[in-house]
């Protein structure tokens, strides 16, 4: 399992302009997620960051509640996610299904 410091370092590299609150919430999620326990620090930081943005800065959960499947809901919020990530200085783009 990656250490918190390793995940934080990866998050800093991925999103150099990320606000402090979001930084800490994403690092917490990465460390608490059993699904990310064996992931590299970079992968844990990336997946946690994308999930955090999806659930906190888009209508993703509302779309699911309205009956859209995960793939469709993710498609509809992808541009919003990309926008938030870009403001945080992220250069990496979402891949299909993220």
Strands, total number: 0
Measured by DSSP, the beta-strand proportion falls in under 5%
The general outline is globular
Could you describe the largest sheet, including whether it forms a barrel? none
Radius of gyration from the alpha-carbon trace, in angstroms: 13 Å
What would you note in describing this structure?
- The longest helix has 18 residues, at 70-87.
- It is globular, with a radius of gyration of 13 Å.
- It is an all-alpha fold.
- The model has no long low-confidence stretch (mean pLDDT 96).
- Helices cover 66% and strands 0% of the residues.
- The chain has helices at 4-14, 20-32, 41-57, 60-65, 70-87.
- The two termini are 22 Å apart.
- It has five helices and no strands.
Labels describing this entry:
globular; mainly alpha; 98 residues
Question: Care to give the gist of this entry?
Answer:
This protein is mostly helical and 98 residues long.
SSE arrangement:
Layout: H1 4-14, H2 20-32, H3 41-57, H4 60-65, H5 70-87
Helix pairs in contact: 1-2, 1-3, 2-3, 3-5
């Amino acid at each position: 399992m990656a250490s918190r410091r390793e995940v934080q370092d990866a998050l800093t590299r991925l999103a150099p302009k990320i606000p402090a609150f979001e930084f800490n919430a994403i690092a917490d999620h990465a460390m608490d997620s059993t699904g990310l326990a064996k992931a590299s620090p970079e992968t844990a930081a990336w997946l946690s960051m994308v999930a955090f943005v999806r659930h906190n800065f888009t209508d993703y959960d509302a779309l699911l509640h309205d009956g859209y499947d995960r793939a469709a809901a993710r498609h509809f919020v992808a541009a919003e996610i990309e926008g938030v990530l870009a403001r945080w200085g992220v250069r990496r783009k979402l891949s299909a299904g993220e």
